Amino acid sequence: MKIRVVTMFPEYFEGPLDVSIVGRAIEDGILEVELIDLREHGLGKHKQLDDTPFGGGPGMVMRIEPLAGVLEPLENTHRVLFTPSGHPMKQETLDRWAALEEITFVCGRYEGVDQRVIDHFIDEETSLGDYVLAGGEVAAAAAIEGIARLLPGVVGNPDSTVFESFRDGLLEEPVYTRPAEFRGWKVPEILLSGDHARIEAWRKEQRLQRTRERRPDLLDGLPSDN
Ligand code: SAM
What we know:
Layout: E1 2-7, H1 14-18, H2 20-27, E2 32-37, E3 50-51, E4 61-62, H3 64-71, E5 78-88, H4 91-98, E6 102-107, H5 115-121, E7 124-127, H6 137-148, E8 181-182, E9 185-186, H7 196-214, H8 216-220
Parallel strand pairs: 1-2, 1-6, 5-6, 5-7
Antiparallel strand pairs: 3-4, 8-9
Helix pairs in contact: 4-6
Bound molecules: S-adenosylmethionine.
């Protein structure tokens, strides 16, 4: 799979693309990431990318010409703009993106992007969450990592991307490993029982309880047998 990232700060990605799962996916040729430096497409000798907003107001807005110059030739890719005004990025969003052959992420800065960029050169607007960051790079890095671990051959045991939070609409249950006791803090007995049916029932109950407490909104969309 190929991911393009349009950013004013390509150097931001030096860490996230080098380590762990993403680093390995790139090294193994499963994932290709191309960083496009928006500054190179800036206007005039100062490579200007932003301007004051029409109608007044604080901050600066990203101009259309540099982004059009980059995005227009990329017609055959799915073009995503990261913005707090977008649809929330969920596991199903990443599943959908990971099934594509290529995708382009556009990272905003300043107060945002001239609306005509969105109207003519963007296919989808996506938000990392209900808060405002300084730029879209964090969202792009999160999406790249979330996609990389879904690509065949990247995660050693493919089951680990199936049995985890959000896959059955619930948060994951608590997990434990050795030692069975530390400072008197014991692992729940049932996990040591070897009774797989009871363990599975316990896990399901824990997933439900956690989800009820922390994310009751997730339960709304579930079939009633949960
Ligand atoms: N004025 C904008 C607003 O109120 O929605 C916020 C602009 S923010 C300071 C600058 C850029 O950071 C945005 O254009 C976007 O690309 C990125 N950004 C900030 N928060 C984000 C979020 N929660 N999800 C995705 N991108 C975000």
